[in-house]
Amino acid sequence: MENFSITGSNYIPTVYFDAQSGVLEIAGESYHEYTVEFFQPIIKWLRDYLATPGREIVFNFKMIYFNTSSSRRFLEIFDMLEDYKRSKKGKVTVNWYYQNNDFDMLESGQEFAEDVNLPFNFYTF
Amino acid sequence: MSQQNNNDTPYDFYKLVEEHHILLAFQGMMTTDVLTMMGRNVKEQAESDITRRRIFSVMVELVQNINLYSAEKDYSESDKKMVGKGIVIIATNHDKSAFTVGSGNTVKNEQIDYLKQKLDYINQLDNEQLRGYFRQQLRTPEDQDSKGLVGIIRKAKNPLRYEFLPTDNEHSFFILTVQINQEKK
Questions:
Q1: How far is A20 from chain B (nearest CA, A)?
Q2: Distance (Å, rounded) from C-alpha B17 to C-alpha A119?
Q3: Domain assignment of residue A36, given as a range
Q4: Does residue B21 belong to the interface with chain A, where contact is any CB pair within 8 Å?
Q5: Which of A9, A46, B101, B143 is most buried, judged by most C-beta within 10 A?
Q6: What is the C-alpha to C-alpha distance for residues A68 and B63, in angstroms, rounded to an integer?
Q7: In this complex, do B138 and A75 lie within 8 Å of one another by their Cβ atoms?
Q8: What's the number of domains chain A is made of?
Q9: Does the beta carbon of B52 lie under 8 angstroms from any beta carbon of chain A?
Q10: What average pLDDT is seen over chain A?
């Protein structure tokens, strides 16, 4: 499967999904007003990728900022990963990065961790 | 000559902005470009990181609210979409101990009850309840959720103040403001 990438800009995060290694990363800022449209190809790639069972996935979130609309899309991604882990023998680890002192960002990650059954690690960057 | 008698020269606006400690004000179409530009401006304000991030978050959600609820919309060439029109203001007090972020836009009167109900409900929740309510909103059908408003109150950590000023028989001007206290960090 091809890798997937989006080059970030002002309100768009950098996305790099490495199909071979299973390291998937979203980084930067996300406050696109039309997150459904923006995330659609990301979700589609992920759906195709998760069609193959038994993959080992490391999902890195290195966000500086995201709006509430993006929260919704992130939850969608977590739900897919959780489902993959449960029903397709997938191994999934989430690494949630937050900038030093950005406790709001840490808290957002902790809330997602409470919401889905996936192992979360928290790191500063 | 007649202009000097009006209170709308650039100098009058300048004085108004200074007197009210306005850091940023924009009125017009809330396009993605405008949002990005305002965001960059907020980030350049020399406040603590956490306060700056909170102001920025609140502003982004207010702009999206304008796009959602404004009764005045126009086609944006850059976004290739209809976008809402309104006003966004960020002001501070004389010692910069707090910031006020506010928005204003015209709404149809039939939306007032719906908005009031949501705002009043959110305003009486405590932090823990807001946290639960936000999670719940993320799983509510997208056109009915109020994650943006909940996001604002959670970042600002102060109640949402609102007002509806009648403009004509069918419309009112919806003002939404929230205070953000300066965090020392």
A1: 32
A2: 50
A3: 4-124
A4: no
A5: B101
A6: 12
A7: yes
A8: 1
A9: no
A10: 95
Mean of the pLDDT values across residues A105-119? 96
Chain A nearest-CA distance from B3, in A, is 40
Contact with chain B for residue A20, Cβ under 8 A: no
Option in A32, A36, A68 nearest B151 (CB): A68
- Rounded CA-CA distance B70/B84 in Å is 5
Q: Which pLDDT value is given to residue B5?
A: 60
Q: How far apart are CA B152 and CA B109, in angstroms?
A: 23
Report the distance separating Cα B52 and Cα B115, nearest Å: 27
Q: What is the ipTM of this complex?
A: 0.89
Predicted confidence band of residue B102 (pLDDT cuts 50, 70, 90) = very high
- Strands of chain B (E only): list them: 22-29, 73-76, 81-92, 98-108, 161-166, 171-181
Q: How far is Cα A109 from Cα A94, in angstroms, rounded to an integer?
A: 10
Residues of B in contact with A11 (CB under 8 A): 32, 35-36, 39
